[in-house]
Amino acid sequence: MPLTVGFDLDMTLIDSRPGIHATYRELSARTGVWIDADLAVTRLGPPLEHELAYWFPPERVTEMVAAYREIYPTHAIEPSLALPGAGDAIQAVRAAGGRSVVVTAKNEPHARLHVSHLGLEPDAVVGWLWAEAKAEALREHGATVYVGDHLGDIRGARAAGALAVSVATGPYDEAALRAAGADVVLPDLTAFPAWWAAYAEGAVSRA
Length: 207
Hints:
Protein name: Hydrolase
CATH topology of the largest domain: Rossmann fold
Organism: Streptomyces roseolilacinus
Radius of gyration: 17 Å
GO molecular function: hydrolase activity; protein tyrosine kinase activity
CATH architecture of the largest domain: 3-Layer(aba) Sandwich
Structural class: alpha/beta
Helix content: 40-55%
Number of helices: 10
Largest sheet: 6 strands, parallel
Number of strands: 8
InterPro entries: HAD-like_hydrolase_sf, HAD-like_sf, HAD_sf, PGP-like_dom2
Shape: globular
Pfam families: HAD
């Protein structure tokens, strides 16, 4: 089996804050309900339902999830950018004969739109999974490494028995990621190829 690396999407591979900010602004305009988009984009990671529950009563959350997802492709894909080193990280895995899979809490169609728009070219994209639930896809794809920015990503890696590699490009700094149990902490994905080269070489020698 080739070495397989899982990657989170939001704030690991892509900076989706501009697009998500624009989507929340549009949702607010359509519903007449004030949403602090500046605050919302500091809390990316958990499922959408978690954030919408701050702004809408429980009986409206399901409706607002559907409304947000209808708006999202028009407002969020174009403004969102690849984070530094994202493409190189995926290509480094491929160059070593490995596979990469994006495992994200974002709904899968939107995740696919993002990676296609940015030309990131992972081998697979799996959506709808958060924290420990990410282990389902990581195990299915045989991922031995999972790279993410959130504490929930560390929990997902642990649940899958994968190495938890964290990047400090999301809401947590390097100290917080280490304290949460990350096996490896990188400042961002520009540091991933060098780390991966050493890891992959060691994995091959151990096989």
